[in-house]
Structure formats: C-alpha cells, structure tokens
Write a structure and sequence with these properties.
Number of helices: 4
Helix content: 25-40%
Shape: globular
Order of helices and strands: EHEHEHEH
Strand order of the largest sheet: 3-2-1-4
Structural class: alpha/beta
Oligomer: single chain
Low-confidence stretches: 119-139
Radius of gyration: 15 Å
Number of strands: 4
Amino acid sequence: MNQTVTVSILCYSQLDQAKRCIASIMQGGEDVKFILTSNGNPQVARYFTELAERFADIQVVINEANQGFWKPNNHALSLCNTHWLCLCNDDVMVKRGWLTAMKKPFLNDSKAVFVAPDSGCTALRNDFMGTRGTKEYCE
C-alpha cells in the first residue's frame, strides 16, 4: 500500500504501554510508517530495533539521553517522508479506523493544519483565530 501517514512515538521508560500502543496501531486497519524514538532507555532501544528488523516501515531513532518531548518530535518531523505526521503518545490505544477519522478535517477543510482527538482542551474547535478546523494547542 501507499502510506500517507507517519506515526511518531517517543518512549522514555514506559515500554509495556508503548508495546500496547504500537500493537493497537498495527491492528488499527491503517497502513502507516513508524518513527519510533527511544529517549535514553537501552531497553526501549533494543525493543524498537527488534521491531524495525521485523517490519520494513519502522524507522528507529536512539537518543543516548532523554531529550524531552519537542526535540525528538521535531527530529521525527525532519525524517517524515509521508504527507502527514501523527505525533502519538506512547500510552495511546487506538480503535480500528482511527486515522480515517483524524484525516477528515484535513480532507474537508483546506485551512486545517493541525487536528487532535476530541478530549477537553484538545477538542476540535471552529473558533481559533477565525480559521475553521485547526487547533490552538494540545495537552
């Protein structure tokens, strides 16, 4: 298939939840590429490397030390070669068809540049600076 989405997952120490997250995405019915970043944890680095050896569409970044959230995700953005990049926390569990739902604002509104799941302050709103379908921030 022709992937249009890269999913970036950053993990420091929660390997078990990252394993569940990755498995849910792989079983979620979407054809994606992955950028998996180990943020200073050798055990996470080993697991991500083993996955990349089994699946061609997984790229691994290994940081020797914890670099926080934004630096590794900005690096993932620079590595992304698909149309969209999805930053996914390592504790997320997705349902079948999740990316199809996330793509809808982009496909329905040419001004949409950033979307997030509907939850509290991350809810999609139509009142941000008069631009429909974009997000002010995610927490």
